[in-house]
């Protein structure tokens, strides 16, 4: 009887297994929060995904991204 129950149990699909693996990692919370913020701001403002706004965001974040890349290299190299 137990063997019948084991064979009828379905394996989770690849997407569910990948999502489970991702959510078990600490770093996943940052990704989830970023996605939720994008969803929230796109609902609140119709201009959030406009080309002018995306250009403005990328231009203002470029110096911070360059500094972060340099600091990451320092941390990796020790």
Order of helices and strands: HHHH
Beginning-to-end CA distance, first to last residue: 58 Å
Categorize the overall geometry: flat
Provide the low-confidence segments as ranges.
none
Question: Radius of gyration from the CA trace?
Answer: 21 Å
Question: Domains counted in the coordinates: how many?
Answer: 2
Structural class: mainly alpha
List the quaternary state of the chains.
single chain
Main pleated sheet: none
Helicity range: over 70%
Helix segment tally:
4
Number of strands: 0
What proportion strand?
A: under 5%
Mean residue pLDDT: 83
Please tell me about this protein's structure:
The chain is mostly helical. It folds into two domains: 1-44, no CATH class; 46-78. It is 78% helix and 0% strand. It has four helices and no strands. It has helices at residues 2-8, 14-23, 28-44, 51-77. It starts with a helix and ends with a helix. 0% of the residues are buried. The model has no long low-confidence stretch (mean pLDDT 83).
């Amino acid at each position: 009887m137990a063997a019948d129950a084991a064979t009828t149990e379905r394996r989770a699909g690849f997407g569910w297994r990948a999502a489970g693996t991702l959510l078990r990692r600490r770093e996943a919370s940052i990704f989830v929060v970023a996605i939720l913020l994008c969803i929230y701001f796109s609902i609140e403002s119709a201009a959030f995904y406009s080309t002018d706004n995306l250009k403005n965001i990328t231009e203002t974040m470029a110096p911070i991204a360059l500094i972060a890349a340099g600091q990451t290299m320092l941390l990796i190299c020790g």
